[in-house]
Amino acid sequence: MSEEVYVCDSRAIPFYSFDDKQNKYKRILYLGTHITTKSLNWGFYYFGVGNMFWSIIKKIYNSESLTQAIEDYKEDFKNTKNRFRKDPNGQAKRTEIMSAKRESLIQELQRHGIVINDLIGLCKCTGAEDGQIIEDSVVPNDGRNGFHDVPALMRDAEVIVINGKGLENGETRENSARYYLELFGFLDNSDIKKKIVYVKGSSSRGSIDELVAYWKGEYSINGVLS
After folding, report:
1. Average pLDDT in the 201-222 region?
2. C-alpha pair distances (Å), 87 with each of 26, 177, 222, 223
């Protein structure tokens, strides 16, 4: 029996950039490898089951308004799923509500200097892990052909946090995120290389407290939030 193949297309998620008006927080770009089908279903990054990204962010930033925006998004997603279950026009109504809620979350992220995106714009995969990406299907988020302009985000960011350290994907790769950074030529700029911090992936095994402590440790060493 052959494995089921999923298509992960980042263009389903609206592109957003840093807010020029915000100046309280450092401009931090969080980059993953590719968006999963679970997150595509939620309409935004890192909402797949078992991914602790948002729990980590809430604890690290310790912001009441950011925490509320994250929780509101999660609650409304679940509520609309039940509310429109039997409505023939339910999906359209739900999409409209969640689009507005996503915009509110994005605005709150921008106020905290946070932009989230992925290295891969389009790929086929057999699961959520980086090792399950079908290599010859990969298209970069390089700003061409309607894909997100990750190189521009990297230039504008003050810090680039790569979410996925230690996810090996082949004997020659230190981790898959760095492999794709090099493959796409995103590390050709020496100034960009200096901004990068690699952290253990938010879907890694371990408790939330262990992951938060690890991320905080890397942030402290690299001056991420200072």
Report:
1. 92
2. 44, 41, 50, 50
